Amino acid sequence: MLQSFLDACPGIYFVTSPEGVITMANREAARFFGQEGVEGRSLLEAVHPEDRGAFQASWARLPEDGEALRAVSRLRGADGHDQAFSWSARRVSDGPAIHAVLLPAAPAPAVPPSERDPERILRMLLDNLEIAVTVVDRNGYVTLNDGKSLITSGLGPNFNLGKHLPEAYAHDAVILENVERALRGEDRHYIVEAHGVLWENWFSPVKNADGEVVGAICLSFDKSDSKRATQELQNRINLIERQQEVIRNLETPIIEVWDRVVTLPMVGVVDSARAARVMDDLLTAVSKQSARYAILDLTGVEIVDTATAAHILSLISAIRLLGAEGIITGIRPTVAQTVVSLGLDLSRVITCANLREGLRLCIRRMHAQATADASMGALV
């Protein structure tokens, strides 16, 4: 009765063991798998090698409650050809057997010839992608020059069509060399600026069945936008560097307040990095202006760390080595405590309460020096 029922089924119907070994099959199964050896054959052997992993995983997931499992796999028939089947398998409720049926899977919709047309596909690419394609024959004459990039770059379609490329670009050594090497059978990749546009090019030779070069194809991308973006980025970097230079000049404003007297008013936090810049700028100004006195005004500085305090005292010593005298003015109590806590020798450091007192001291000393020099001159 069961065999009669199976034979009446229009599809490929069979019964297998849990391992997938066929124990019973209908006529359609015998026709597909071969009249001999259907029963006792492992179903997995007929599955296409690329589908076996998925098939085994699906087969192992067959529900125990009799629910059907459906999938699509390719199976090889007796004629040696592979065919896609939509299959359904179900475990029987009263035993280990598995009933399965195979029905031919619906074929993929045919692609109209017009949509497979290489020229149509190429046209779509040229019209929609930012590229340009140039084809030259074995003698270097352009037989195709088309693409959206030719239009967006302002050159226009067919810009080089009919031209002898080696002659047209004889003045450009980069283009000329790469065209000639492509026509000699080499693949070329290069970037060049031409007609105000930055092009990235891939040039490949075209060979016939005998390996003879019969021309070359060049695929070009307009890289001008990338170049402009890079230039804009560089301009911004240059602007930032100029702004940083202005900031550095503002944070160390060295002023000549009197003849041969310079002052550096400092405001804000003085860290080690800023103290090092102050030393460089102030020593340069002292040397350049032949200053006799350099006043370092700390009125606007609330806090300095121990390393900065050491830098400031070192700056006074460096000024003295240049033949000038360093004077510190406007020291805040917190700054004074930091300097004292270091245990540094302050006996040779001249300090004044504020900038005005420091300038007055410089003027008084220079006047006394001038008077002394005049007296010495009179005695001589």
UniProtKB/TrEMBL annotation:
This chain belongs to the protein called PAS domain-containing protein
Stored InterPro entries: Bact_StressResp_Reg, PAS, PAS-like_dom_sf, PAS_4, STAS_dom, STAS_dom_sf
**Record bears the keyword Thylakoid:** no
Q: Which UniProt keywords are given for this protein, alphabetically ordered?
A: Phosphoprotein
Taxonomy, top ranks, is: Bacteria, Pseudomonadati, Myxococcota, Polyangia, Polyangiales
* Source organism: Polyangium sorediatum
Q: Which Gene3D superfamilies match?
A: PAS domain, STAS domain
- Residue intervals of the STAS domain: 251-362
Query: What domain of life is recorded for the organism?
Result: Bacteria
